[in-house]
């Protein structure tokens, strides 16, 4: 055997180390969530109550549904910061369509979902066709949708008409909040897409090395348009569920949601540089963010200080992510 040859055992070891790193990140998150439950369960009154746990599931769904799409976007080396205004505008769109435009609830929901996919596809098209950085493309969507939502409503809530469908979407099924059920179903769908489909493999390839992916025959433009159309659709779904929960559409709702979503994805181990990440990690990141937010509220922490804590968590998560990425790259090169 020459010096450059390797044994099968060595090759398996090299392949396995990045996966071991990801498993370590997920194990660490599980341990952190358990510690949080122990600490908050003993210090925050009502934290372990059934009502609070169900409320946390609702809150997790607001972050998690959009996070599945954003995970793929970041794995592909892109970013989407339009989530918050997109969710708020979606809630306005469904309420306006049902209450004022005479569409009825089913058509208003359908219009909202189609519109969500359309504005997401627009951001992806700008990225793919004109090479506009995804941060700038989605920043434009963020500004436009935020302004439209407030303009159409004069910054006032638009009350939804009575509807059994919206009552179900905003309520629960067999005691479990409907948004949480939607979140879990979509989690399994996206976990399957990311791991077992050609499209999922293309997303990882684009994030790992876009020029090489293009040379391998992957259509970068199609992948990017689909990625952002997906996040737009998921934002619209979240907006419909939020409107059902609140009983109205509100252009000022979901403020700052995009930061919680990105934080959950990054905390879950998805590399901001692209090419690495898992849906399971994002799920744990969503759980971590939700528990932290709920605990801060129950402990009576000032709302402004809550934002400080979230900011510290995001920076710390990015720092850990960068360190893990550098170590993984150094491991692959050795």
UniProtKB/TrEMBL annotation:
Protein's cellular compartments: Cell membrane
Main location: membrane
Keyword annotations from UniProtKB, A to Z: Cell inner membrane, Cell membrane, Membrane, Transmembrane, Transmembrane helix, Transport
InterPro entries: ABC_transp_permease
Tagged with keyword Transmembrane helix: yes
Entry GO terms, CC: plasma membrane
Membrane-topology annotation of the record: Multi-pass membrane protein
Pfam families: BPD_transp_2
GO molecular function (one): transmembrane transporter activity
Top-rank lineage group of the source organism: Bacteria
TM stretches of this protein: 27-48, 60-83, 103-125, 132-152, 172-194, 225-246, 252-273, 280-301, 307-324
CDD domains, per database record: TM_PBP1_transp_AraH_like (cd06579)
UniProt name for this protein: Sugar ABC transporter permease
Source organism: Prauserella flavalba
Phylogenetic lineage: Bacteria, Bacillati, Actinomycetota, Actinomycetes, Pseudonocardiales
């Amino acid at each position: 055997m020459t010096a450059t040859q390797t044994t099968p055992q060595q090759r398996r070891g090299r392949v396995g180390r990045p996966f071991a790193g990801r498993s370590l990140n997920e194990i660490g998150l599980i341990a952190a969530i358990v510690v949080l439950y122990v600490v908050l369960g003993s210090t925050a009154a009502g934290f372990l109550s059934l009502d609070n746990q169900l409320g946390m599931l609702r809150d997790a769904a607001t972050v998690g549904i959009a996070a599945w799409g954003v995970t793929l976007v970041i794995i592909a080396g892109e970013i989407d910061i339009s989530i918050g205004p997109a969710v708020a505008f979606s809630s306005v769109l469904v309420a306006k369509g049902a209450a004022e435009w005479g569409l009825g609830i089913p058509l208003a929901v359908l219009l909202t979902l189609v519109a969500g996919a359309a504005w997401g596809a627009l951001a992806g098209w700008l990225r793919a066709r004109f090479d506009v950085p995804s941060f700038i493309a989605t920043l434009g969507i963020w500004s436009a949708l935020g302004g439209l939502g407030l303009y159409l409503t004069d910054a006032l809530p638009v009350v939804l008409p009575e509807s059994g469908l919206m009552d179900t979407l905003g309520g629960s099924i067999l005691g479990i909040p409907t948004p949480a059920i939607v979140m879990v179903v979509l989690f399994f769908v996206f976990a399957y897409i990311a791991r077992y489909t050609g499209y999922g493999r293309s997303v990882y390839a684009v994030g790992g090395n876009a020029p090489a992916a293009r040379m391998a025959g992957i259509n970068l433009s199609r992948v990017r348009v689909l990625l952002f159309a997906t996040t737009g659709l998921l934002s619209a779904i979240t907006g419909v569920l939020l409107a059902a929960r609140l009983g109205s559409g509100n252009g000022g709702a979901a403020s700052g949601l995009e930061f919680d979503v990105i934080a959950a994805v990054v905390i879950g181990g998805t590399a901001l540089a692209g090419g690495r990440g898992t849906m399971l990690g994002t799920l744990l990141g969503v759980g971590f963010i939700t528990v932290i937010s709920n605990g801060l509220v129950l402990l009576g922490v000032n709302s402004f200080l809550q934002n400080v804590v979230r900011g510290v968590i995001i920076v710390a998560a990015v720092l850990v992510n960068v360190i893990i990425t550098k170590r993984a790259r150094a491991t692959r090169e050795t």
